Every structure is written in structure tokens, then in C-alpha cells.
Amino acid sequence: MNPEFIRNVILSSTPFRQIVLPITMLAFLYLFYLINGQLMGKGLAIACAIIFLVVMLLWGSREVSDSLMDEIQEKTWDFQRMSAMGAWSMVWGKLLGSSFYVLLTCSMALVVYIYSISDLQNIEFILKSVFLLITIAFIGLAIAFLSTLFLIRKSSIANAKLSNGINLILTLYILWLAIPFVDLKQNQSISWYHHQFNWLDFNLFSAITILAWLMLGNYRLMRQELQYKNSPIIWTIFIFFILFYLSGFLLDYYSIREGTYQEYLTILAPWLFILMIPITWISIYFSDNKITTIHRYLFSISTPRWTEIWLYSPLWLISFVILVGTGTWLLFNNNNLLAQPFLMLWWQTTPTISGQFILMCLLFILRDIAISLYFNFTNSFKRPDSSAFILIVLLYLLFPSIVNLTLGNDWLFLFLPILKQSGWSQLIPVSLQVFIAFALVWFHYRSRSPKKR
Amino acid sequence: MIQIKNLVFEYPGKRVLHNISFTIAPQTICALVGPNGAGKTTLLRCISSLHHPFSGTVHVNGINVHHQPRECHKHIAYLTDFFGLYEKLTIQQSLQYMVQAYGIKKSHQKEAIEWVLHRLDLNQHIKKKASELSRGLRQRLGIAYAIIHKPSLILLDEPASGLDPEARRSLSELLLDLKNDGMTIVVSSHILAELEEYSDEMLIIREGQIIEQKHPQQLHDKEISITIKTDSDPQAIVSYIQQRPDCHLFSSANEEIVITLPGNNTLISELLNDLTRQDFKIIEYYKTKKSMHDIYMQTVNQG
Predict the structure, then answer these.
(1) Contacts of B103 in chain A (CB under 8 A)
(2) Which of A191, A323, B131, B215 could form a disulfide with B87 if both were Cys (CB 3.0 to 4.6 A apart)?
(3) Secondary structure of chain B in the HEC alphabet?
(4) Which of B10, B48, B101 is facing A450, going by the closest CB pair?
(5) B2-219 maps to which CATH number?
């Protein structure tokens, strides 16, 4: 048996969790039964599903996050990192062990859920819907674990308040996304790559896939904690998976059934470019942008040692290369296929993507990368990534709003990539921003890179 | 046991280990000494694969610790200076956890727990929780966590800090016992007098560089200083000493002459016999071995 699982179960086995919580859960379920007119059925089932998700996500994610934070705070993390346990054992041992009593308590709600719809639905549907609820709950737990591991990796200190704050925001967001799934839609279908899938089947498949990616992310981050090097291959595959998954809906939206490869690509390329912008942006924060890491990376390039170059490649670089790839394809295959109703509704302006817009997007992303590097390279910020994030949000939201209200939207190109075309000169301000940002990065890199003796 | 080649480690804006290279032989106790901020803890964390260096290699038992971190952890124990314990678990529970975490086979787990309880004299406390233990017992439990898998290399970072003299004494005995069990131990400490009790090798680190490595032979056969008091003409004795190749005049003032020579009793008696044969009147002599502190200060001052 996994020792980490056993230890976490022992630690969480307090009388409060063993006795008080099951009684409270039973009381709540009985209350819902009374509110439902002492009847079983769909109403009670939905109430049980909601209480299952709420308790699992709010309480479980806290327990899961604490299972990591406590190790750091109590200074036992080094013992675990020096043990013989593998990354996967550590992940599932902590995740399941710390949420064991939460799952036990919440399973009561699931039992009532099953019982309340047993007369209404067939056994296959009931099992699938229960499995979907459990998978969604574990997605929440896996995200809490991932964000805590990520925080440990970024800050190397135990900041329980920050961890709990981030996890609460994430949990509430997941809860908001998950609540629609408690409504049982037996006969609805979803179209993906022109195939009709049962609503429950497709969501179950999607949820399991998301959970698998999250667990893989946890495993990879834990590997890094155990001093293994991770190549960016999984991140690259993840990007292509996201693009593949979302393309299934896009092709359906454009109702292209039997197109050629070229037609598919023409339809998808603008979208892939648009999708790659947030992915690249997120990857800036997922990367380790510390000056030591970048120094090591540049050192491996100067040597050159190809394995290390690949191993130490920042995730934003991989994402940016893919973004540039899709952007270049668009630049040389100019098309107006984006003049579709959906886009017109979205922007309500010129719907075509111009070469100018593509270059602006690339330059703004480059500027954001430089800002993140700059904050990481100076030693003035306690939390460089959070500070960079705040500055970038201000640059995209606050300043454009002020400019829009004072000078009008003709000057928005100073802060945002805009579709409205009015000459290549619009690229000058953002190019200047990129130049200044990278000049600052270079200056700080030079001044803070340790000198050899 | 440990082979380090060209190890470089950087913190943001600061290189803390500069091209460090050294080897440590098996079954020795090596004292890692140096001032605060010299890079002792970083070096230990690099050896234990908890820190990834900028460049260079660390091999323990022939395993590259940064290529196979989990494999090397089977051979290494590391106790940090500010370690924590599983406060809510009893000693029994936490040791049971540790044997499983180190992947010790089920058939050997009981034996491993009994060995470490006996070795660290924790038998009578197994039902106590870590939070109920004294500072000395906590230190012992920390070492027990670290060595329960019988590693061949133990890295200890300031293990004696905060311990009372009795606990320090027992720590020294424990380290010697572990060495006799075949383990190699690297101890970082400021307390040189205490290190002297058990160390047979000394690594002096300053500003991220190993400035001296004193091997067992050098530590045990240290130079001995002899102070001679004489009624004869001191200058004549000084001239005589300066002609001899086997000893070295350290200082002379009034009737007191300090001579240094390799720590060998035969040489001392030969020198004293020769002095009397030369009709020098020796009215008193006493010998002093150089302490580890003297060697450290001498090396640091030379550096």
C-alpha cells in the first residue's frame, strides 16, 4: 500500500471527520428529502449532486492543498524528496489520502443520488452520471493539487494563505462550470468532428480526458520536485491536443463536412492562431523564468548541448514557436474565410485577420514575455510573476480604457492588437515597447549574471 | 564514495559554488567547515540532489546524482539544519512510514525499525509523538528518519546546533558508531572542537571554493609543537634547530623556544637526546598538538 496514502489517511482520521461530518451530511440529505416533499426523484437527485460537488470541491481541494503545504511548513518536504517514493506514488497517495474522509462523507450523497433516480433511469445512465460527478470532483482536487505544486515551484516557500486564496477562486470557478452537469440530459447530443455523441457520454469522455491531463501535469511537476528534468514534449503534445479538441467543434460550426486538407487548414488556421495567443500567454506563467534557469539555458545553447537545450527550453518559447508558425501560415495564405457570422458578432468590426494584426499580436506577446523576464531578473519583487501579471493586466485593461475615454479608440493600437487597419505605422509603438522591454531584460541579465572566477 | 567535478551552483545574481572538485573516500567522517555563507549548505544540497547545479557532476557510489536522483537517494541520507518531524505521528508510526517511503521490503521493515531504535536509543519513547520530544530526542528522531534505510552516505548540516553538551557527546559517539558500521559521513558545523572528536578529514570552504582538503593522514599525524625552556644560550639552540632538516623553528622568545615537527614520538625523543648531547640544558619541555581550529585558522589566514 502507498505509504503516503496511509499517512494522509491517519492524519485526517480525527473524530470530527469520522463522526460529526457523516452525521451532518446525513442531516442535510434528510433536510433535502423533507424539502422535496418526502419524495425521491430528480429534484432530490440534483440536490444530492450539488451537495456532493460543493463539499468535494470546497473541502476536498483545501485538504489536498494542505497535504502539500503542511510538508513545506513543517519542514518535512526534504525527507519526502529524499525518499524512494516515485512521483506518481506521491501524487496519488497525497491526493487520495488527504481527500479520503471527504470522499467517504460525500459518498453518502451519491448513494442517495443513485437511490433517488433508480426508478427514473436505467443502470447504465446512473453509473455514467455518478462517474461523471466523481470525475468532475476529482478535476477540482487535481487542479488544487496542481496550483499548490505550482506555487511551491514558483516561490519555494509555504504560503498557505495565497495557496488557499488561489484555490478558493479556482474551486468556485470550477463549481460554476460544473453545476450545469448535475442536470440530467439523457437525450441531448453533442456534435464533434461531424459525429453525434450522447451528451453524457461526450462529457464523461471530456472530463476523463481533462482529469488525465491534470494528473499528468501533477506527475510532471512532482517529478521536477524530485529533481528529474522534464522536457517540454508533454506541453507541446498538450497544445496540439487542445487545438485538436477544439477544432472538432469549429469544423462543426462551419459545417464543412467533406473538405480537402487545405480547406480544413484554411478554416482552422485563423482560429488556431487566435487560440494560441492565450495558450502562449498562459505558458509565460507556467515557465520557470528565473535568471538562473535562463542563464543555464543560454549556457547550454552557447556550448551547445542539444539535449539540455531541449530539456531547458522554456514553455513560452515552444508555444511562441507554434504561434509564429500559425501566424506565418496565415500571412502567406491570406484569406477572408474568417468573415463568418460568429466573428462578426464578436468584434462587430472588420472581420478579416490582416497581416498587420498578426504581427501586432506576435509583438504584444513578445513584449509580455519580456515583461515577465524583466520582473524575474530584477531582485526588487518578492513575487515577480504576480507583479508582471498585474502590470500586463493594467497595460491591456486600464490604460486602453483611459485612452479610449480621452483620445478615442483610434489610439487603442498603443495598448492592444486591433483589427482595424490603418497602415503599418501602427506597428511602431508596440515595436518600441518590445525593444525597450528586451533592452531592460538584457541589461538586468548582464548585470545579474554571476561572474566566473 | 563522493566524487565531485567542477561543480558550479548559482542563486539569482550570485554564484555560490565555483568549480568545486574533490573526492571523499568511503568510511570516513569528513568535516565541512567554513564561515557563514561559504556555500556549505548549498554544497550538501547539491550532493543530495536536492539542488540542481549550473554545471559539473556529483557521483555517489558511482551514480550521477543529478541523472538518477531517486537511485542515489537509496544510498544517501540528508538531515538539514532546520528539519521538521511528523509531529502528529508517534515515533513508531513515523518510522513505519519512513521504512515504506524508502521502499524497504516488508520482510526487512521490522528489522530496520528495531535497528534504528536501538542505534539511536529511542526504544523507550516509541509511543510518544514527535511533538512531545525534547530537543535532543528530536535530533535523534531526525537522524533516525534519515538513516533508517542504512545509507552508505550521511550528510548532516549543523547537527549539533541547539544540543546540550550531553546530547553532543552522544551525537559524537553515534557518528563514530555509524562510521564503524561502514557509513561515510559529511558533517557541516561551526563547532570545530566537537568535530575534532570524530572527524578524520576536513574540507575548508570559503566563498564557494574549497580552499583546503586535509586528509585523514594529515589530520592524525598533525605537526606537533614542542616548547622548550632552557638555561643555555637560546640563540645557540635556535642555530642548531635551523640546521636540522626534520624540524622547524616556530618561534623563540627569551628562554622559550617553540619547535614544530611531524607528530611522531620517535622524532621528539631523538631531538631531545640530541639537544642534551650538545650540552644544552633543557629545564622544561611540553608538547601541544595543533587543533582542528588551529589548522582551520592557519589555512584561512593563508588563503
Answers:
(1) 83-85
(2) B131
(3) CEEEEEEEEEECCEEEEEEEEEEECCCCEEEEECCCCCCHHHHHHHHCCCCCCCEEEEEECCEECCCCHHHHHCCEEEECCCCCCCCCCEHHHHHHHHHHHCCCCHHHHHHHHHHHHHHCCCHHHCCCEHHHCCHHHHHHHHHHHHHCCCCCEEEEECCCCCCCHHHHHHHHHHHHHHHHCCCEEEEECCCHHHHHHHCCEEEEEECCEEEEEECHHHHHCCEEEEEEEECCCHHHHHHHHHHCCCCEEEEEECCEEEEEEECCHHHHHHHHHHHHHCCCCEEEEEEEECCHHHHHHHHHHHC
(4) B10
(5) 3.40.50.300
